[in-house]
Amino acid sequence: MAGYSSPRPSDHIDSEEITSPDIGFRGWLRWFWRQVTSMRTALFLLLLLAAAAVPGSIYPQRSADPNGVTLFFSNQPELAPWLDRFQFFDVYSSAWFSAIYILLFISLIGCVVPRSLVHARAMVAAPPAPPKSFTRLKAKATFEGSTTTLDDAFAELKARRYRVVRDANTVSAERGYLRETGNLVFHISLIGLLVAVAVGGGLSYSGQRVLIEGETLVNNLASYDSFAPGTFFNKNSLTPFTIKLKKFEAVFDLQAVNVGTPTDFRATVVSRVGVNGESKTSVIRVNEPLELPGANIFLTGNGYAPVLTFRDANGNVSLSGPAIYLPQDANYTSLGVIKVPDASPRQFGVLSFYYPTVAKLKTGALTSGFPGNVNPAITMSVYVGNLGLDSGMPTNVFSLQVHGLKQVAGGKKHPKIELNKEGQTVKLPENLGTVTWESTKRYASIDIDYNPAQLWIFLFAMLALAGLIISLLVPRRRVWVRKVSGGFEVGALAKGDDARLEQTVIELKEKLATKVAKKVKK
Amino acid sequence: MNPVHLDVNMASVSLLFIYAAMAVYTISFLMFVFHIAQATSEKKSVRDSSSRLQRAAFFVLGFGALLHGTGVTLRGASANRVPWANMYEFSISGSFLIVLIFLTALAVKEIRVIAAFVNGFALLVLGTATTTFYVQIKTLMPALQSYWLVIHVTVAVLATAFFNIAAALAVAYLLRDWPWVKSSKSPIAVLIRRVLKAFPDSAKLERLSYRFNVVGFILWSFTLIAGAIWAERAWHRYWGWDTKEVWTFIIWTIFAGYLHANATRGWSGRRSAWLSLVGFAAILFNFTIVNLFFKGLHVYSGLK
Questions:
Q1: What was the ipTM of the complex prediction?
Q2: B232 in contact with A, Cβ within 8 Å
Q3: What's the pTM value of the predicted model, to 2 decimals?
């Protein structure tokens, strides 16, 4: 691979030989620029980028695993702030990671621009004259030839789609300009890809919402449970549409070796685009999002939402509706948190488990044995006291701070509340009234994503791949045939890897030699 | 989609075929090792008879591949899907492809000498798969129910196979280049020198390794893009720095560095051969350590 193998053009100046730069500021500047755009720097930055990406797979990242970061902070309170100071939980947006890839792209631009100009000139230039001597060429041959040999060589190389020129004693040919074109297309596409990723990230948004069967999402900011906009996000890019979750179905395998493995999740939704749009029923599955104008709707999670009604001792309803229970294991043992602030005589909170197929562990504790709704049951622990909902501090709806509350059901002292079938009503302790399990609904977590640059990202990636394939597989080759004393010589030189270099010279020699032989016979 | 019927008996038969393939591979591996010993013997009569042993070894390897392929096919058929949905299946399918590509690539004469390496590697992968990664046949979870499972994973395995062969050639190149091997009088160095005589010259080794890496790199680039397209469908974003995505990126960057190294004065040859090995080590790391111990979305080992 030595010598003439550089994918950068032969006239590109690599850094190694530069020892004494031009005197003066501009000279230094030029020297510095050559260093930055040299192949060696590109190589160094690439390897540095690979190394810099590693910590992001070792430490939890805020972008991919925010809970993991929180957990890391509580497990390693000494180390975590230090790691955080050096952005080890945000590796891919960190100053140091960004610095490396920005430098890499500067180096890339600094290399690609002059190289494009060189290539543009080469595309219209005639193939270069042969070297004075062929001794340094690896692929070469000599043969006898005749007066028409140069004409034959010209025709033969032309037929092989070389660019050919000839003069009295020489035929010079070159092929494979596409190799360099592909190389440039690849590198320029990477710049395009980076720009598209940046622009797309800035304009995009990603919103999450849990929809219980029967609920509707209206595409505006207030409807989302969580919402992550890009830097340049504009509220107007929320196209007006509504999605209603009509039905959610899950299929779990019953075969012995595979029991409980989910095989299908289907969310049947009714969508409507615009104010007067038509309602359309469609099914969203994993891998099959619903594509609406301006956003794609994905199914990302699901679970059970039992419909519960709490009544006080006088029979007045203090809370009624479906409660979202979050699955805790593969069999959908699900945890629900219910806060009843309007209960009388005093407010209370409930920590509750839903078991779609209830089973008993050896310890006597309940668990779920199958994720499907075969034999469901609900248990509840009840806490009375100030739930802290009136303090004005935001609280997590999916957690209950039991500290400072008095447990009146469940725990070591009291039995748990147990509900074993839908329609059942059970009395709560301490004159808190009753709870009724009305029915069970299902919910789906959906993700609404918008990224206007996605098509551009795809196109640039494809262009880069095409450029890459061409630049690595099309050989660039120069061939010369020259009259020398006592006959002819043929020589070839490859730019980069060329599996057929020697073969080409042999073939050419044989072809030209047989033509001679035929002519002699005549 | 309703659950597919799982044929547990067929899965057991598949495992039997895999075990049989391992036994046959062991025999062919020993034959290849003996062949190297013969081919580099000081006695001319022994050297002359060695090519017959090599030919026989390739027949045995081919027979092993036939059993191996049957095992892989039955595994897929028993669940009515592609046989690479967990680490065990990925291992048996991947090693099968490696052997298959190697047997196909035998048209290139010079790579015959690395047969022992490729054969040994496949045997090692099968051994690990059956002892450590084995899981009972399962249906596909919804996230894997996509034609991208066929495209993305097949190309990833193909890329791995090419990188593997390139790594084997790089090892041979580095051994030959090692001053200790070149000049030491220790019997081991003498033995390695003798074995290396069976290999093509350094320039040829380097070029072959480069070519296999080039094809591997193109396939890996495709794997990365196909993965991003699938991720957009399944996980609602094309790239999210999931641990597996991170390592796919790291591997891609290392091999991009390798290609640049081959065009940088002072970096072609030994240093780029080392880079090729670092890249292949990253692939093995990505498949084993990342799959088993790192947290992420690509958690398909099926192991608890």
A1: 0.88
A2: yes
A3: 0.88
